[in-house]
Amino acid sequence: MSLGQQLAPHLPFLRRYARALTGSQAQGDKYVRATLEAIVAAPDQFPRDVDPRLGLYRMFQGIWNSANYDETEGRAEPGEGNEAVARARLARMTPLSRQALLLTAMEGFTPEDAAYLIEVDTTEVESLVAEALAEIEKQTRARVLIIEDEPIIAMDIETIVRDLGHEVTGVAVTRDEAVALAMEDRPGLVLADIQLADDSSGIDAVKDILAEFNVPVIFITAFPERLLTGERPEPTFLITKPFQRSTVKAAISQALFFDQSTVPAEAA
């Protein structure tokens, strides 16, 4: 099996990680493309002594670290909008902590694998994750609309949201109900399942909401690869079903991290 064939199944999930890390489909996909170009240009540099997925993410981390080093040295164009907001927050938080959180909680890597990817000792990973959660949760509070038709899952998500210190504005089970709740009490974050109770679409509900006002959205789906092809406008933040509580926490924190409405006054 060629290297390309080995890496293909992992690309949708690398896109998910890249988008969550950057807060942007366009920026995340740009880093993924750069990673693939680097592999094609120098296939002998690809780590062959580890699992292909681990090697792919390691190559991505090299691209990411190089790009962010250039920004630190002042060689990148200044960011605007969400990226500028993120930079203001990054001034008060170690970037490695965010990467450790996303790699373990969202991408499912072990602490050992995460340590390999971000090039730290395994013992450091837990403290980095704890640092990321503490800092992000301290900076961001929001009012959250949950769009989910399975009662047990909705209840679980609601508990996670409240445990993070956020307020739940409502739980909708259909497209129409979701839009009505959003218009009645505008949320600062939306968590949306894809398939809803009356065979309506959570994607359509979100489109209707976004037509009225901007709000960060996290989609929940059992088939994330279907929404992560890189070929059309797609969600920036995705949670895969079945999910772990830590995954939901990481996704919420990261989505709010890039939301301009949650910037503390001193960071604006």
TrEMBL record:
It holds the Pfam family Response_reg. Residues 143-256 form the Response regulatory domain. Keywords: Phosphoprotein. SMART domains: REC. Coiled coil: none annotated. The modification 4-aspartylphosphate is found at D193. One of its GO terms (biological process) is phosphorelay signal transduction system. This is Response regulator. The lineage of its organism: Bacteria, Pseudomonadati, Pseudomonadota, Alphaproteobacteria, Sphingomonadales.
